[in-house]
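Notes from the pairing session

We agreed to fold both candidates in a single pass and log them together. This is the raw record for the first candidate, unedited. Please don't reformat it; downstream parsing expects exactly this layout.

Candidate A
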Amino acid sequence: MSTPDPQSLAAALDTIPDPAGSGGLIAAGRAAPPRLAADGAVSLILDVTGLDPAQAKALEETARVTLAAVPGVTAVRIATTAEKIERRLIAVGSGKGGVGKSTLAANLAIALHRLGRKVGLVDADIYGPSQPRLMAAEGMKPTADNRMLIPVATRFGVPMLSMGQLVEADKAIAWRGPMASSALGQLIDARWAPADTLVVDLPPGTGDVQLSMIQKHRPAGAVIVSTPQDLSLIDAARAIDLFRHANIPVLGVVENMAGYACPHCGEISNPFGIGGAEAEADRLGVPFLGRVPLDPAIRKASDAGDPPAAAEGARAEPFLAIARGVIAGLNLRPR
């Protein structure tokens, strides 16, 4: 029987593409150079960091079959290793409801994905979950493995979890703070790999869920959504104050529903005012991430489960610009 050489074993492994898309297993650093014993047995250390359990198992089996097919190999032993992914949480909050926070969170997650981030979306708005509708995931139920939830895939490339996927539609969720906080923990501590960034759509206000999120999960930063009007800005300032007191960086403020273009004459009007959120961000010394216009097309697309950030064209641009600002803010701070 011929004896295989290490070069032929490495070449065989490099015929297997890295699931992350960066070459063969050896070239990508996914596999260490295999070790060959005198009796023809091959030992391999395979790094499955960032792969979900199904991907890891499939890759291990492919490597085993590929090595076993090399002439002279008598046995294949594979040990898998994985580094713990340091996952960053981006909290999207608002001081009050009705400012378009959930729509902004969904579009931000999609925009981040389009800009190359590995993103998941958590609908932590326990009492009013709307992300299943926004992400075209209504009726899709997550599964579980070892008591860990497995996020639902969406057609936008952003996996998600929401209480709206775990309870009956139109059923009220009348939970006290501890139950809501426990539910939030299950959503965040799910099997999110390979996502390294989670956009968390918080309930409006500054209550138990927000405090639990801050204390237990320590977001990397917060994005605050407000309309330009004074009443909304007062509550947005309270939300900023909450994160600041907890030493959570405020990545910036988004001014939503700013500017309405008449579909008939094109004249721009500002039913909620304009510039208020930018002025408040400047007053409080936090970044201004941008504004999203009051556009009926954004509302219609969102209600239909077709977020504008997923499309090409002008309506996606505000969300992509906001996502670039969020990435810049995160990159200013170490992982």
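Candidate B (folded immediately after A)
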Amino acid sequence: MLSCVIWASERGKGCAPEEDVALYRSAAFVLHTYKLAETDQIVVLFTQEFGKLRAVARRSHSPRRHVASYYQPLMLLNAIVYGRPGQALYRMHSVDILQALRPLHEDFGLLRCGLYMTELIDVATHEREPAPELFILFHQTLEQLAQTSDAMLLLRRFELQLLTAIGYTPQLLYCAQCTRDLEARAHTFSPRLGGLLCTTCASTVRQTLTVSPEALTYLRRTLAGDTTVEPPTPLAATVQQELERLLHAHLTFCLGRELKSYAFLHL
């Protein structure tokens, strides 16, 4: 969907030039909301064109338009906000649903995965910094989530691609500490250093994880961009658990916090 910025001048009303406002229109997802006074709320949007924006949503007095139900995560919206450029808090002008992604709301397991992805996007992005690559990744993965037979493996792929997009790609080609080439038997990963360690460094670094050859193959294959097809044979449950532990530890260190939705993911 095309997006635009339309400048609306208030000069004709006797206002100073600095009172000019803009309308910002973009495809968007709601990341979360919180109350403002008794009836209003602040909506945190992840927009395709403008990055993360905060906007005040006033209560609708129309009995035909229950706008509050639109401000839910996991729905692709056409959102229009307005305000002076660069301000911290905008105002909602209008919102419409472009894609409801109903399967994600009707299946508790898929809902948990979708909310986990939503929090990852929220923590990994910054206010008013466009991230179109992340927006496309998020949207496409949500669409795939509604159809996949292996939601957990899809989450691992999303985590890896998100890490790459924000500059925290796990280092799997050379030692993350000394930068020497890795030996074939190097299977020790350091979340703090962000990659594999050679056998010499592995003996000196604390808080490491052991990575199986199967998990390493999947990680390298995914980082190489081979993400269009599933693995030739299904990954064993132990390998999937290993991938989850490794990526969770790496994400927690890179993002600087434990995600609240991670525990919810395993209810």
